[in-house]
Description:
The protein is of the alpha+beta class. It has helices at residues 3-9, 16-24, and strands at residues 28-30, 33-34, 46-51, 54-60, 76-78. It has a 5-stranded antiparallel sheet. The longest helix has 9 residues, at 16-24.
Amino acid sequence: MRLDKYLKVSRLIKRRTVANDACDAGRVMVNGKAARASYDVKVGDEISIGFGNKEVKVRVKQILESTKKESAEEMYEYI
C-alpha cells in the first residue's frame, strides 16, 4: 500500500492530500529516511511524522485496505 494511503487509512493523518503534502515536504520518514508518498509500506516499517514541534513515531503492525475508526489503531503501535 502507498504511504500516503496508509497514513490516511490508519488515521495518522486526516486526509490523503495532506499526507501527500507532508511526504513532499520531507516531514515523513520511514526507517530513518525521507520517504515519498509512493513508498510501498510493509509490516515492521517504522514511520515518524513531524507535526510542527512534535514528532510521532509508529511501527506498522498490519496493512488493511479500509478500516473503521475504532479499529484503525490496530494498524500501528506507538514507539
